[in-house]
Amino acid sequence: MTRPDAPRAARFEHRSGGCPNPEAVHPDDRAALTTALRSGRRFCLRLRLGGRTVVVVGDAVLDADGTPLGADGYTVDLTELLAAEQRAAVDEALPAYARGRGVVEQAAGMLMTVYGIDAERAAGILEWRAAETGVAVTELARGLCAAASAGFEVGIPLRRHLDNLLLGTGA
After folding, report:
1. Sheet (strand 42-49) strand order
2. What whole-number distance in Å separates Cα of residue 164 and Cα of residue 170?
3. Which of 31, 5, 86, 96 shows the shortest CA–CA distance to 53?
4. What are the strands, taking DSSP E only, across the chain?
5. What is the pLDDT of residue 161?
């Protein structure tokens, strides 16, 4: 029994034109399809075809002179299945990304304050250092925040300045 959400297979024969023409597939996939059709053998290829992703399984059909006529086999459209898998992967990764984003912004804020730089430059520094050390940006930010706050005391002038800014009594 076939699952209701299973991709449908479309049968094609070499005379029906059901096998994609190499010119119709994505330019990066053309050589593989052309080679498969010229082989005279059974093949299985994943192809991009008009914004869709398909798997073509078939037997290449050649005429008596060895010229490709097409193929006899099936095309299975995987577009919706792949899109669903991609959505599921994003849905799974998003909460962890959101949790880590706060500490990255905190570390960037510290860099902005200490070095007087904008948010884009601070993010660039974090990304650069993460790449240099081979550590994920989130882990680098966590370590930076933990180290910066361990045993660090804010001086009276900075505290007064922030008090004044928060209370709206001047800078």
Report:
1. 9-12, 68-77, 52-62, 42-49
2. 6
3. 86
4. 9-12, 42-49, 52-62, 68-77
5. 85
Quickly tell me which residue has 């902005």 as its tokens. Answer: 112
Q: What is the mean pLDDT of each run of 10 residues along the chain (171 residues)?
A: 48 50 87 90 91 88 85 86 91 83 92 92 95 94 89 81 83 59
Q: Show contacts of 100-109: CB within 8 Å, 24+ apart.
A: 100/137, 100/138, 100/141, 103/138, 103/141, 103/142, 103/145, 104/137, 104/138, 104/141, 106/141, 106/145, 107/140, 107/141, 107/144, 107/145, 108/141
Q: Is 159 helix (H, G, I), strand (E, B) or coil?
A: helix
Half-sphere exposure for 65 (CA within 13 Å, toward CB):
2
Q: How far is Cα 16 from Cα 71, in angstroms, rounded to an integer?
A: 9
